[in-house]
Amino acid sequence: MIDFQNVSMAYSNKAPLALNDVSLHIDQGEFVFIIGPSGSGKSTVIKLLSCEERFQEGEIVLGDKALARIKPRAIPYVRRNLGMIFQDFRLIDSKTVFENVAFAMEIVGASKSKIRRQVPIVLSTVGLRSKMKAKPSELSGGEQQRVAIARAIVNNPKVLLADEPTGNLDPDNSEQIMALLQEINKEGTTVVVCTHDRDLVDKMRQRVIEIKDGMVIRDELQGSYSYCILPEETRE
Ligand code: ADP
C-alpha cells in the first residue's frame, strides 16, 4: 500500500539529507506511528506521500502509483486516495463546519445532493452533527480537529495521514482524537500518525517506526515510544 524503497531527499542542493535511504512498507489497513524528535524527518515522509515535495533518490509507491516520476497533472489523483490532518487543523474560518467538510467534496466534483447526504453522515461519525452551522472559531481545539478529520475522510480515502494531530490539544482531547483515528482504521483505512506524543504512543501499542536524522532506526509491532529492552527475568 505504502512502499518507500531506498528514498533519499534533500530540500535543496546545499541542505543535508532530510531522509537518508529510507525503506519502509505499510500494508493496507495498518495503523502506524512515525516517531522521532523534531527535525528527524517525519513531516517529510508525509510531504513526499502527498507529492508536496519531491525526492531525489529511490522510489515511493502509494497504492498502484509510483511517485518518483509522477507528472504534475497526475498529482490530484494521487491525493484523492489520501486524507490529511495537521496540528493546526487548517480549517477555513469563514466557512461553517458543514461548508468546510463540503468543500473537500466540491473539489472532487461531487454533486450537491451527494454532499447534502454525505456531510451529515461523516459529521455524525466524528460526533459533531449538532455543530454543523457553527464556525470553527466557535469550537474547541478538539472539536476543530474532529471537523478536520471529517473533512479528511469524507471522500473515503484509502490512507489517512496525520501530522502531529494532537500537538495543539490537551491530553483528554488527544485521547479522543486517537480513539477516533483508531475507529476509522477499524473500518479499513490505513492510518499513519507522525507524533512525538510519548504518552499516546505508549498507551496505544501500535506499530512504531522511529526516525532519527532522516533514517529509520526502529520498526516495531506493538511498540512504545522508547525502545525498551526488558530485563532477562521478565522476558517471556
Ligand atoms: P519533523 O517532521 O520530524 O520535525 P521534518 O521532516 O519537518 O522533521 O524535517 C526534516 C529536516 O528537513 C529538518 O532538518 C528540517 O530542518 C528540514 N526541512 C524541513 N522542511 C524544510 C523546508 N521547507 N526547507 C528546508 N529544509 C526543511
Notes on the structure:
The protein has 236 residues and is an alpha/beta fold. It has a domain at 90-156. Helices cover 31% and strands 25% of the residues. It has 7 helices and 10 strands. It has helices spanning 42-49, 75-79, 97-107, 112-125, 141-153, 171-186, 198-204; strands at 2-10, 17-26, 31-35, 57-62, 65-66, 82-86, 159-163, 190-195, 207-212, 215-220. It has a 6-stranded mixed β-sheet with strand order 6-7-8-3-9-10, with helices on both faces. Helix 6 links the parallel strand 7 and strand 8 (190-195). Helix 3 packs parallel to helix 5 and helix 5 (141-153) runs parallel beside helix 6. The longest helix has 16 residues, at 171-186. The radius of gyration is 18 Å and the shape is globular. The relative contact order is 0.19. The structure holds adenosine-5'-diphosphate. The site of adenosine-5'-diphosphate has 11 residues, from helix 1.
